[in-house]
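Chain entry —
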Amino acid sequence: MDARVSELFGSGNGHGSGSQGVASNVKPGNAFGMGVTPKKASAKNKKAKARSFRNFKPSNNTPYLPPEAEEGNIEYKLKLVNPTQYRFEHLATQMKWRLQEGRGEAVYQIGVEDNGMLVGLSEEDMRASLKTLHKLAEKVGADITILREREVDYDSDVPRKIAEVLIRKVPDDQQFLDLRVAVLGNVDSGKSTLLGVLTQGELDNGRGRARLNLFRHLHEIQTGRTSSISFEILGFNSKGEVVNYSESRTAEEICESASKMITFIDLAGHHKYLKTTIFGLTSYCPDFAMLVVSANTGIAGTTREHLGIAMALKVPIFIVISKVDLCTRATVERTVRQLERVLKQPGCNKVPMVVSSTDDAVTAAQQFAQSPNNSKEQEELMQQLTEFQVDEIYTVPEVGTVVGGTLYSGICREGDHLVVGPTDLGQFHKLTVGSIQRNRSACRVLRAGQAATLALGNFDRSLLRKGMVMVSPEMDPTICWMFEAEIVLLFHAKTFHKGFQVTVHIGNVRQTATVEAVYGKEELRTGEKAVVCFRFIKHPEYLKVGAKVLFREGVTKGIGHVTKLQPIAQYQPSQSDEEV
């Protein structure tokens, strides 16, 4: 939405509630939330805010929202009182369209004209409109939740209100709506403890009990530091109520009773595990990144680095300040000011919005909701040939080889015949998909953008590695040893030149590559741009033009995108192909 929504709904609840933020009962600390919006948008918002309070005639002070958009999931309705049957059917069709645009979610602004003018409704009309909205939602199989109501200043003796209503419907071909959130932050900032409290529904004991269920290795339990990527789920039912592991629920029960599922990707904070953190951000395609900052230490260690990587990959960010119960108010405010300074710097160019009330949270969420792919992009990806990125490989007793990852495009079903590769020789092996699981529950069909694990039966695990892709046999994948990328050198101690070796991250690909050539220049220094030719040193990879590139070596870091591929000869299926 727009800053004008914040102006309208936010005043009256104010920012005076201190550290009672979005996750106010979480330990460590009562957490602050801080949303981050692009600076360009803010300039428009400032102008819009100035415009929004110009006086209307005959009204003395009637603010307004931006005019209603034809596309998107936001609908304005002045009132919905006793519609005719024909009108009711039309409204139901319109609701289906808005839900489709929002991938299962739509927001209705009641008491608002199509041009954005906030007229408001009397108590009686508002009640009748919400009743009609309930009936419409029932007809399309959706649920409604009133997000907030507020009186508006309008020329009338009768108080007039507007209401903001969330409509949610799980699409017929899906079990639940799905979002992925990568959790970033410096070591010891409280990431795993925060997730433990959210997903388990129990407060921490002050000594790290909440995080124990998230750890996967003995050394993580012993040191209290995450070194691997773990996944935690938090569900919400159709009424917006939390569904988690409290009340001894299993993962299957959470999936069955949730209409919306958030998968938290818990990443490592320590610098020596940076490659794992980058892999989690590039490979798992998170919709959002949550940066956890400890109030008592502020911006320290890898915080700045994690923020920079998320911004370089254009992942929308929100910040949670933890451990505020361990600090004085002055210390918390100092940390908030420190974050605001960093976010406003030219490199970040963001406008921070402090979230300290429910209204602030709703406003920030609406601005963020524009970020995930819209329904049209999803439809287009689903029409393409199947491409599944392999991120994890397991061997499960009585099941066999299992791969985890994300379906980049197409549709994948049980029993589908795919090919997986490339091998060290650039070849692909045939395989058959057995069962599919999403969030630990069975799933028959996987759609573009969804993460899942696929059982491959007795397929030889030694033929697989992270970074491979499983694609439709009809696809002609481009396999290459060498590729060109337009890059920006973010930081380098000396000069970047031919022969330099870096670790390259491109989607789920992570491999060391040598700089074969720097076009137009002998060498690069910090902040300079150039087109560079890289060569993988171990095995060829499957790449696409336009893919984001992130490379590092020690303190050296750079970003860019693939501009040209130098494919090896057209791939030939290997002699040892196995049909499972």
